[in-house]
Amino acid sequence: MTAWIAPAAAPQPIPLIAVDGAALPALLDRLGAEVRRWCEGNAFAAQPGQFLGLPGTDGAVTAVLAGCRPTDGLYALASLPPRLPAGDYALDPRGIDLDGDAVALGWALGAYRFTRYRSAPRAPARLVVDAATQARVAPFVAAATQVRDLINTPTEHMGPADLAAAVRDLAGRHGGRYQEWVGEDLLANNFPTIHAVGRAAAPGREPRLAMLTHGPADAPHLVLVGKGVCFDTGGLDLKPADGMRWMKKDMGGAAHAIALAGLVLDQRLPVRLTLLVPAVENAVSGNAFRPGEVITTRAGLSVEIDNTDAEGRLVLCDALALAAEQKPDLVLDFATLTGAARIALGPDLPVLFANREDIAAGLLEAAQATQDPLWRLPLWRPYLTMLDSHIADLANAGPSRHAGAITAALYLERFVPETLPWCHLDVYSWNDGDKPGRPRGGEAQGLRAYFAFLRRRYAG
């Protein structure tokens, strides 16, 4: 069993009675005057996050009252695993009715701790779930855990080769085909922008493009693309210290694409899958790419480098061009692409761009159903003039500080034929602080929504 789950047959789990302020008076009427006095003496008002153990005659805890807000869904009890005393707990029918799958998923997300470099201070409290609930929830827990682990791992242990290894391992587990192009092979095989961004990295950290393929040739072809910038100094347009501090997370888009590919394969969606992860380190050295250079991309479009810190769209554009060459049914890309997206919508709302109304609507509907929010912004094509270059087909950035998330998406769209359905998700991939079910550090955003959409599209 995993750390957050206790088997359904666990001996004597502690009853966990979920209650909100509205339901508390009636519950206390049923539990009796002694429990009422105990709650009043401990100022328990069933506020979200509050909990109170009910002692028996021998002093042992006989049950726990857990305050919550039912509308919080999967986060209603998600703060409890690291806060309750270690042990096994089971939802008690005397409490308000909560969705069991949602509670289990939120509990698991709240129990997560990154322990590669230090042990967790204590084991999380475990929730008793039946086998069917575990089977439904566990794949999403594993996917979110993989995203978090990949992002939380520091750059010295999550360089381009390490990120590509995650793709190779996924291919190996599912009998897929793995291929990669490394260093000068990128130039020989016409991936010039991936090479340009990553060429300044130290030996052993060369840029690469990792590709997984799986599934029958006659199945609908789904391509997932993830930005894998394992560390972003900004290049010669160097970031300040505070802007560079958390740039280990700049491969968050790749982490999402890898985990989503894992869900597609684990759940056996009837698709032909291609996963593309351009993995680089945007470093500074004598051969770093420079502002003012012009690169002819895989798609044949020439790009003037206005800003070396707008590197994510450069590594993505060669991968998108490769995706387009295969004429798939759908292309989905994920990237920690712009600070502008965070300025517009903050850290919790990934920004969705789509060139098909039906696909955007389907994703937003799935986001609502899975409590995994997305927010759509427009591909406002008049803003393409902000990427004008007087010597190349376009620039990778421009002087205007307006609409940065939109202009980045418009840049990517130039590498996607109009006939090809495509969505771009600009994710933050990070929690700046601890929240119920969302501990500080790397975070999966939109993952459940995207998989729900894909399952409905391809499996009915």
Automatic annotation (TrEMBL):
Gene3D superfamilies in UniProt:
Leucine Aminopeptidase, subunit E, domain 1, Zn peptidases
Judging by the UniProt lineage, the source's domain of life is Bacteria
Record key words, sorted: Aminopeptidase, Hydrolase, Manganese, Protease
Q: Which GO terms describe its cellular component?
A: cytoplasm
Q: Which molecular function GO terms apply here?
A: manganese ion binding; metalloaminopeptidase activity
Q: Which InterPro entries match?
A: Leucine_aapep/pepB, Macro_dom-like, Peptidase_M17_C, Peptidase_M17_N_1
Which PROSITE patterns is this protein grouped with?
CYTOSOL_AP
A single Gene Ontology biological process assigned to it is: proteolysis
Cytosol aminopeptidase domain location? 307-314
Please give the family membership noted in the entry: Belongs to the peptidase M17 family.
Name of the protein described by the UniProt record: Peptidase M17 leucyl aminopeptidase domain protein
